[in-house]
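Posting for a labmate who doesn't have an account.
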Amino acid sequence: MKTILTAFIMLTLFASTFIIPQTKLVYPYTRKDTVKDNYFGTVVPDPYRWLEDDTAQAVKEWVKEENDVTFSYLDKIPYRGKIKSRLEKLWNYPKYSAPFKAGGNYFFFKNDGLQNQAVLYIQNGLNGSPEVFLDPNKLSKDGTVSLSTYAPSNDGKYFAYGTASGGSDWNEFHVMDVASKIVLSDDLKWIKFSGIAWFKDGFFYSRYPTPAKGEELTSKNEFHKIYYHKLGTDQSEDKLIYENLNAPKLTVDAQTTEDEKFLILYLSTGTSNNALYVKDLQHEDSPMLKVVDNFEHNYSVVDNIGDKLLVLTDKNAPRYRLVLVDPKNPEEKNWKTIIPEKKDVLQSVSLIGGKLAAIYMKDASNRMFMYDLSGKHEEEIKLPALGTIESLSGKRDENIAFYDFTSFTFPPTIYELNVAKNTSTVFRKPEIDFNFSDYVTKQVFYKSKDGTRVPMFIVYKKGLKRNGKNPAFLYAYGGFDISINPAFSITRLIFLENGGVLAIPNIRGGGEYGEAWHKAGMLGNKQNVFDDFIAAAEYLIKEKYTSSKMLAINGASNGGMLIGAVTNQRPDLFRVAIPQVGVQDMLRFQKFTIGWAWVNEYGSSDDSAQFQYLYKYSPLQNIKSGVNYPAVMATTADHDDRVVPAHSFKYIATLQDKYKGNNPVIIRIETRAGHGAGKPTSKIIDEWTDIWSFIFYNLGMKTIY
């Protein structure tokens, strides 16, 4: 995050703004068919169904025509090139990950600055000389092949890793010999949503059957299975460990304990709640024990203590507790509570150096405490600010561990944790020529429509005048039990240093206050999510941080759906809307790739009762004629096989057809990219150059460079 401000002096004056005269764009012709669906007596037209076939020539031509309009518009923004230059300078600093150990070696990732992918390094011990171990930038010329997952063997002899191409969720697994750095012959394909669980001279992993040619990015992902791969053998020889042919919509993931004594299987029918199976690997003929055989709560194995398992669960503890479970006597009456449920959410527990490192979440930010194995509290590890621990790595029998800490204006800093002394010290801190002390992060609480108290982080430059004239950027997610904690973002610095106000509310649907907070924003309660977001915007306006004419909103994936929904419900409240890779067709999401797994979160149009509330807020079906919509730029990518691009295609086609005003309603479609993971630096910078250019231009922000 190194940037030389003296080399690029940005003079910005937002005290006065100017209004951009908009001329209605001429959008490409989009064919409308007569396709209709009858949902329990309600007939719903779907004229752009043909856009779901993303490999069809007509769709490819439509994508090109839409991109031509979009980039022609963006090319006319006078300071777009300057924004890109500034982002590149902000981005150009060395970035490190926390080190992790295997055998006698430490591994860590480093990006020199503008490399498309971070490079994996290896060194012998903490004082060894780092050497390049694996450089993903050499896997493709344009940086679009990325490292997706990885795991060294517990003895440190081998390193298994997955690669993803063009942002797809599909992975291909490979193995390297650590000592020689030679890539072995092992080549595993059609892997998706899988970890790497080492056992002896191989590992457990998850895969799907080979999809039909041409349907790799759209067909339903069904019949997930667990296999064991022995090093040096062909994938066709892999041993099937688990399958359930009676439950095609079931995902399964494998984990082994650090001592490789137990195999843990997690089974799930959606994105939350899981069953838990365990097998004793010391005895090949041991049975697969069903510790939990329902999908009513969440269970995660931390590790084992002897023949028992430490399990983090929300069973009878919505904010989670840690229990000790005997797999041979798994009934809840036999559980021993190690760390009971408390007021704050127990987000994670790690077994390190013979102790338990527990990370709690209090009002959406982290605290860390050390416990002994009986659950006796020892000490709080003091954190430097209101922020987030993004990772914690260490071994159960070693006293040294590492974690990285970050916040909105606190770049990721790596700390060395001495478990024996319960102390932490800075191990590696980024050097950035950016004065973060000039900025304020505050947390406020506001009331939503139904009176619920919702927290929100607000970040801005000191001396900000709350006169209602400041540009503001409101971001949220609101779903899938995902907590939005304070995090550093290079892309947002350009907005902050230009006088912008960053606001991030922790709306319902996330996990900030445990499972009750999550459930309050899922299924039939989804309107609470939209109400919370709208109330956040109203708070910012009421408190004069900004005005509706200066407010831009953004969200991605489930958050992209949020932006689509609130833009329909309160178009008067926002000036700019950026829905990224959004789930916009709530009546058909379950028909593509892994969409069926979201039914537990959203409901399904195949159910008569659930159809009613989905139809009421689904962004695509609720775009209305005669409404003055804000400026909208949707973003998606051609290789997104998580939220297929048809969602955004159909959404923008409908908006362009029904909206007759002068505000631009356009779509930016990236090529050789997916839902977001593994996207090369160059594409990230290009995308955020265009997003900020669109926002600055449509908020009428006057900048002098």
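Reply:
Got it, the structure tokens are right above this. The longest helix spans residues 57-75.
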